[in-house]
Design a protein that fits this description.
The structure holds 2 protein chains of 2 kinds. Chain A is 32% helix and 25% strand. Chain A is an alpha/beta fold. In chain A, strand 1 and strand 2 (20-30) form a beta hairpin. The longest helix of chain A has 17 residues, at 148-164. Chain A starts with 7 loop residues before the first strand and ends with a helix. By secondary structure, chain B is mostly helical. Chain B has a single domain, classed as ABC transporter involved in vitamin B12 uptake, BtuC, CATH 1.10.3470.
């Protein structure tokens, strides 16, 4: 547009992790004055790309060029010094410091005289820095007291400020900046992005396709680590983008809707007046054997709170849980496991799998007693069961005693699921985003495992990764907003709702 | 490393290989080994027990007080008490959610203080009764050393095969994923500390049998050597990695070093300096920093 040489370019970027390819040769260009939309499903490679651009990870191969020069970025600080600043989804401002302190954090040297910070100078510079983002606030306000959007604007101001010192037009990476914004706040951010465009380049990453279309000059669509499309928003619709993101595989029976049950067993889980931190109103629901119930809502709507309240990870302030007709006393996850409630946490790497232990040890941990006679574990029984489940779920692994970390994400997740499925005691499966970060094939495998569980008469409580997934897998969808249930929508195989039907209750 | 150390010490001080030093080694070893096995259990959980040597001193004093009246039963009762003390540390640590080093540092003060109080600050002579047989010799080796190895083999088998051992390693590797897999981490940690207390009690028994005297502070200087033994053996301070075999080797290294230092004529008063540095260096060299977000 404006200049010939792109301010930021990546060429043939490849990033491999053990067992998976996160980026398989991505090339992208960005010029000053441009707003670039970057979209893709979870696991498509967006976050890996961002990590490389901010110097958090080094690419396996490929180049990052700034103003035509090859760069080897060595961390967030290095990247910002070279003009690439990122505004994180989970904000990086420090709440107990003031705005001014946050803005100059780590760079106080520029403000000192004889080693003492000159508050007046800091205040003056802070006011200057706040001007472009349009905040009219005292720089001595403590960040804790600000609204979410105000904090976000301060992050942007901070990125711009650091960018100035690089002596070139800044590149601002905005990761899901609008995901929790509505109404006026959203408009404010969008107009700021319009303003930023005048003398910088912006990368806008979002799940909200309507905003991507509205704000961006160009959109790159990532899928499975590759750029599958580069398009201009003119003439494109949300539907087009969505199809590009999910690929053609989804159009057939990706979620196994054909296998969805319509005949259910008796009520397996009855939750009455559940109230957990993060919820505003008590929630009651039932889950029958063979039924899949999805909970959907935006970040912070309380879906995770519900799941964690049921399995005993979070403390309940009220609520009765009845399993197969018997009242259950659940204070911690070990109680719920004993009662036959399996839990698949959303953070597979930190919460789901024990990466240093072997596949076998991971698989048998939850119901270890079933492999033991008077507290002594039988290796033989463990091996037999591990082999059986590795085969049943087609886990790709060189052996059953390899450390869990050597498996790819999808195979790890299968083991996490199998540790619950292997027991006949399993009655309810609480699965938080079980397909997150997996490639398309592995996702389909996970969906199949969920269908198998339902066929066995297990009741499945699902926190889906995407709305499509919720709709595709669930018999029934409970929608939450701000910690309250706003809708309960039936999703029989013959009459699936569409995302819009859910979104109206979500926002 | 162990072989190199033995060779090194023998080279510098040929008298080391003489029967007298080897006998001292065999006598020193069981005491440190009991302490380091207890410490290892807690370190495998990613915790630390700074009180375990103080509890050993406390146990020795109690045994000295009770042995005349209660005999063997007194010893068993004291081991039960020290196991209870360990369990109390574990319970407080989990219940109050206070770091284990803080709880057991407090415990260090409490139990060594109580030991001083009960003994009125004096060393007590003990008639170890049955326990005296621990330092009878079979084929020239003190029974205590043989007993220690038997206990170690049994404990190694249990850790590797019983459900508790498996859950202990799981909690040490990742408490959150282990808990979310249905492991009751609070209980595992509590039992881990109770085992540390149990081994402190055994160490107390070894101590009185060996010295036939109980001083309220004798065992206290063994805290650092026992920790150094665990880490040198190759048990990770971050938890989840290690085992009895490694601790056995670590203990032998420390015991050889102690005897070697004595043989070489290094003053006893300077030895804690060496074990302090050894503990720091062995952690610094072996710690897996990728598993910790921040080191503090």
């Amino acid at each position: 547009m404006n200049s010939q040489v792109p301010i930021l370019a990546v060429r043939d970027l490849v990033k491999e992790y053990p067992g998976t390819v996160a980026l398989a040769g991505v090339s992208i260009e960005l010029r000053v004055g441009e707003v670039l939309g970057l979209i893709g499903e979870n696991g498509a490679g967006k976050s890996t790309l961002l990590k490389i651009l901010t110097g958090v990870e080094a690419p396996t191969s490929g180049k990052v060029l700034i103003n035509g020069e090859i760069m080897h970025l060595r961390g967030v600080r290095d990247a910002t010094a070279k003009g690439i600043g990122m505004v994180f989804q989970e904000q990086s401002v420090i709440p107990n410091l003031t705005i001014a302190e946050n803005l100059f954090l780590g760079r106080e040297a520029a403000l000192t005289r004889f080693g003492v910070i000159r508050r007046s100078k800091r205040r003056r510079l802070a006011l200057q820095a706040l001007e472009p983002v349009g905040i009219d606030l005292d720089p001595n306000t403590v960040v804790e007291d600000l609204t979410f959007v105000q904090r976000q604007l301060i992050e942007i101001a901070k990125v711009l400020l650091i960018g100035q010192s690089s002596g070139q037009a800044p590149v601002v990476l905005l990761d899901e900046p609008t995901s929790v914004l509505e109404g006026d706040d959203l408009e404010r951010l969008i107009s700021l992005i319009e303003k930023l465009r005048q003398d910088s380049a912006v990368v806008f990453i979002s799940h909200r396709l309507d905003e991507v279309l509205r704000i961006s000059d160009r959109v790159y669509v990532l899928r499975d680590g590759e750029v599958v499309a580069e398009c201009r928003p003119e003439g494109a619709t949300e539907h087009d983008l969505h199809l590009l993101m999910v690929g053609a595989e989804h159009s057939d029976d990706y979620f196994g809707i054909e296998r969805q049950r319509s005949d259910f067993g008796p009520v397996r889980l009855r939750v009455t007046d559940l109230l957990v931190k993060g919820m505003r109103e008590p929630l009651s629901f039932e889950l029958r054997g063979g039924e899949v119930v999805a909970f959907v809502g935006t970040e912070g709507s309380g879906t995770e709170a519900v799941a964690r309240g049921v399995v005993g990870v979070s403390e309940r302030s009220s609520g009765k849980i009845v399993i197969d007709g018997a009242p259950a006393a659940i204070r911690r996850p070990s109680d719920s496991a004993k009662l036959g409630i399996g839990y698949v946490p959303s953070e597979r790497k930190t919460d789901g799998a024990l990466l240093s232990l072997s596949l076998r040890e991971n698989l048998t941990l939850a119901y270890l007693d079933e492999f033991a006679t008077s507290h002594m574990v039988s290796r033989r029984r463990e091996r037999a069961a591990t082999k059986e489940w590795v085969e049943r779920l087609s886990v790709k692994t060189p052996g059953i005693d390899v450390p869990m970390r050597s498996l790819s994400g999808g195979n790890q997740q299968k083991v996490v699921l199998a540790k619950w499925l292997l027991s006949n005691r399993l009655r309810v499966l609480v699965a938080e985003t079980p397909s997150r970060g997996l490639d398309v094939g592995a996702k389909a495998d996970v969906y199949e495992v969920i269908r198998d569980a339902a066929d066995r008469g297990v009741g499945v409580m699902l926190l889906a990764d995407t709305l499509e997934e919720a709709i595709g897998l669930a018999n029934r969808i409970i929608v939450l907003r701000d910690g309250r249930q706003t809708a309960e929508i039936e999703a029989p195989a013959s009459a699936k709702p569409v995302p819009v039907d859910l979104i109206e209750w979500m926002v | 490393m162990l072989v190199a150390l033995v060779a090194g010490v023998s080279l510098l001080e040929p008298s080391f290989l003489k029967a007298a030093s080897l006998r001292t080694l065999a006598e020193q070893f069981p005491l440190i080994f009991m302490l380091s096995m207890g410490q290892m259990t807690v370190i495998l959980l990613g915790r630390i027990d700074l009180a375990n040597a103080a509890v050993t001193s406390f146990a020795a004093i109690l045994m000295a007080k009770w042995a005349p009246d209660l005999g063997t039963f007194g010893i068993v009762a004291v081991i039960a008490i020290t196991s209870g003390i360990g369990a109390l540390h574990g319970w407080l640590h989990m219940r109050a959610q206070v770091a284990s080093f803080m709880i057991t540092l407090g415990g260090l003060g409490v139990w060594s203080g109580l030991a001083l109080f009960i003994s009125e600050g004096r060393s007590l002579s003990v008639d170890p009764g049955v326990a005296s047989r621990l330092f009878d010799r079979t084929l020239g080796i003190p029974n205590a050393a043989i007993a220690a190895v038997v206990v170690a083999v049994g404990y190694a088998y249990l850790l590797a095969n019983c459900t508790f051992g498996r859950r202990l390693f799981a909690v040490g590797n990742g408490q959150r994923p282990a808990s979310l897999s249905g492991v009751n981490a609070d209980r595992i940690v509590l039992i881990g500390f109770a085992i540390s207390g149990f081994f402190s009690g055994l160490a107390g028994t070894v101590l009185i049998a060996w010295l036939e005297i109980a001083s309220p502070t004798t065992a206290n200087s063994l805290l650092l050597p026992a920790i150094a033994a665990v880490i040198l053996g190759g048990t990770a301070i971050t938890g989840g990695v290690g085992g009895v075999g490694r601790t056995l080797i670590g203990t032998l290294i420390v015991a050889v070093l102690r005897v070697g230092l004595d043989v070489a004529g290094v003053e006893t008063s300077i030895q804690p300096v060496i074990f302090g540095m050894l503990a720091i260096v062995s952690v610094a060299v072996t710690i897996d920093r990728s598993r910790l977000p921040v080191i503090k």
